[in-house]
Amino acid sequence: MTPIELIQHNISGYIRLEAEEMAFFTSLLETRQIKKRQLLLHEGEICKYSAFITDGCLRGYIFDKNGFERVLSFAPVNWWIADMYSLISQKPGVLNIEALEDTGVLLLSKTDQEKLYTQIPKFERFFRIITENSLVANQQRLLDNLSLSAEERYNNFCKKYPSLINQLPLKQIASYIGVTPQFFSKMRNEMLRKKS
Questions:
Q1: CB–CB of 77/57 below 8 Å?
Q2: H helices within the chain, ranges in order?
Q3: Is the pLDDT score of 195 beyond 80?
Q4: What is the pTM assigned to this prediction?
Q5: Which structural domain range is residue 121 located in?
Q6: Nearest 5°: phi and psi at 74?
C-alpha cells in the first residue's frame, strides 16, 4: 500500500467519505521522512501536527526528575501520534517524539484539522473516536502501572504492540513497562524458561 492508501484505509475503518472528501483530506497532508533518532517533536515545543505513521516506528517519551527516559507510547505503522495536551491547548508540550528507525509520516496540521471539521464534519467523529481510544488506552496504562506486576505489564505490551516485540531494542520495552533493562532481561529469560 502507498502511504495515501494506508491512511485512507485507516480512516475508512471509522467514517465513510465520498471521493471528493477524501481527495480534499489527502490534499492537506504533508509527507515527511524522519531519520532514525531524529526528533519530530521536542519537549517544550508547541505540537502543531498529528502524525500518521506510514513506515517505521516513533516513540513518545519524557525525562523524569532524575533524567531517566520514560517511554509513554510507541507508534508503529498505521498509528497516529501527537502530544495531545500541547496539540489541543497549543501550549508547550512535555513529550519528545523520536524515530526508532527511519520513518515515514503523513502530517496533518492543527489548522488543517480545524478546516476539516468545518468543511467535512464527519472528521469530528473520526478524531473524537481516536482521541477517546487514546484516552482509554492511557487510563488503562496508568491503572496497569499501579496494579500489575512487571510480567503482566509486559504481557499487555505484547498484546498491544504484537508487531514490535521482536522489532524494538529491549531497553525501549523495559522503559515502557517501567523496569530497568537488567530486570527486564532476567524476567524475560525466566518467562521463556517457564514456557519450555
A1: yes
A2: 3-12, 19-27, 84-89, 110-119, 122-147, 150-160, 170-177, 181-195
A3: no
A4: 0.91
A5: 3-134
A6: -120, 150
Instruction: Find the mean pLDDT for residues 115-141.
Output: 93
Q: How many residues does the chain have?
A: 196
Task: Report yes or no on 44 lying in a domain.
Answer: yes
User: In 10 A of CB 73, how many CB atoms?
Assistant: 19
Query: What is the C-alpha to C-alpha distance for residues 120 and 99, in angstroms, rounded to an integer?
Result: 31
How many CA atoms, within 13 angstroms, populate the side-chain half-sphere of residue 83? 25
Tally of domains in the chain: 2
Q: What is the pLDDT of residues 78-95, one digit of tens each?
A: 999 999 999 999 999 999
Which residue, 134, 156, 172, sits at the end of a domain? 134
Q: Count CA atoms closer than 13 A to 34's CA, side-chain side.
A: 25
Lowest model confidence (mean pLDDT) among 54-63, 82-91, 113-122, 154-163? 154-163
Q: Where a domain ends, among 103, 134, 165?
A: 134
Q: Could you tell me the three cell numbers for 18?
A: 465520498
* SS3 (DSSP) at 165: coil
C-alpha cell at 86: 500541547
Whether residue 110 is found in the same domain as residue 153: no
Q: Is residue 186 part of a domain?
A: yes
Q: Which CATH number fits the domain that encloses residue 80?
A: 2.60.120.10
User: Residue 74: what residue type?
Assistant: F
Give, to the nearest 10 degrees, the angle between helix 170-177 and helix 150-160. 110
